[in-house]
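To the wet lab folks,

You asked to see what we're planning to order before we commit. Fair enough. Below is the target structure as tokens, and below that is the sequence we designed to fit it. If anything looks off to you, flag it before the synthesis order goes out.
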């Protein structure tokens, strides 16, 4: 092994260890939020519904979105316990979207993260309710004083998540994606759809880290721009994996985009051109965080991980 490759390998191992440690902390926080004991004015947590929620959210995954919240906040000098709560709230929204995406009326998938999807493990009605419950739980978590002592910070977190998860963000992007199946779409239309469907929550993750840290407008603009860039990068990497990886590697059904005739930049421009676009996005992401110098090392490593992941 050359001297040049050894440090790179070490850095990759250190990053993956940090990512795993963060995922473990998020898992612990989510478990504490998904116990059978009612909270606040809740009356009862139905066991079957709770089990379905746990199945949908406590089944691993890279936890990239919560990791971004944690690392952006840390880069900006904020490292309080409430960060893990905010990060877990975002993961609840992400997992709700996966549960609903997997339903027969949507992508009709039987496998998620190597396990049966929620509607397969339980039933369709319970899967719908589990997704609904995870979505509302997210706002419960963010509105709680345990997440941040300042009401204006909590309000900004709630507002940002609502706008990025709803009609003008993730849900709207999913609608556009369904409409685009089997139809020709321009590159601009595909980018818009992907910026909403996938990019919105990744952008919000970076924005939320800055909100928690009460960062300056300039700092918040920079990390939000970074989130926008890696949001598109994440989707491009996903689209490439759909045509190059196996179901075993992905932990979900491979080739679904091609089978469903989905509008992607891979289908429009081809694999090689999409890889070139992905590489240019990562360079742009690095340049965006250049003002933060070595404080941004983990976030830059995250961008590279997103582009180069194999599942």
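Sequence we intend to order:
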């Amino acid at each position: 092994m050359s001297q040049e490759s050894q440090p790179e390998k070490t850095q990759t191992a250190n990053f993956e260890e940090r990512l795993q440690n963060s995922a473990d902390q998020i898992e612990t926080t989510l478990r504490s939020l998904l116990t059978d004991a009612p909270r606040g004015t809740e009356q009862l947590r139905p066991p079957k519904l709770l089990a379905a929620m746990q199945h949908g959210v406590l089944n691993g995954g890279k936890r990239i979105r919560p990791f971004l919240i944690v690392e952006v906040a840390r880069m900006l000098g904020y490292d309080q316990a409430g960060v893990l709560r905010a990060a877990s709230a975002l993961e609840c929204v992400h997992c709700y979207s996966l549960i609903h995406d997997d339903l027969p009326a949507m992508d009709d998938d039987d496998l998620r993260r190597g396990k049966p999807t929620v509607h397969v493990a339980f039933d369709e009605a319970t899967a719908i309710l589990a997704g609904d419950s995870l979505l509302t739980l997210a706002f419960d978590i963010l509105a709680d004083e345990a997440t941040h002592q300042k009401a204006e910070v909590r309000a900004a977190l709630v507002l940002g998540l609502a706008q990025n998860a709803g009609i003008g963000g993730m849900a709207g992007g999913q609608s556009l994606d369904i409409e685009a199946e089997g139809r020709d779409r321009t590159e601009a239309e595909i980018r818009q759809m992907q910026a909403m469907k996938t990019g919105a929550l990744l952008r919000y993750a970076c924005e939320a880290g800055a909100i928690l840290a009460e960062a300056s407008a300039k700092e918040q603009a920079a990390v939000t721009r970074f989130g926008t860039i890696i949001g598109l990068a994440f989707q491009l990497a996903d689209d490439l994996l759909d045509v190059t990886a196996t179901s075993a590697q992905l932990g979900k059904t491979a080739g679904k985009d091609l089978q469903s005739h989905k509008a992607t930049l891979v289908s429009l421009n081809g694999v090689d051109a999409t890889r070139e676009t992905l590489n240019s996005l990562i360079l742009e992401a690095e340049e965006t965080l250049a003002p933060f110098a070595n404080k941004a090392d983990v976030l830059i490593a995250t961008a590279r991980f997103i582009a180069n992941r194999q599942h």
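Structural context that might help your review: The chain has one domain: 9-308. Residues 5-33 form the longest helix (29 residues).

Thanks,
Computational group
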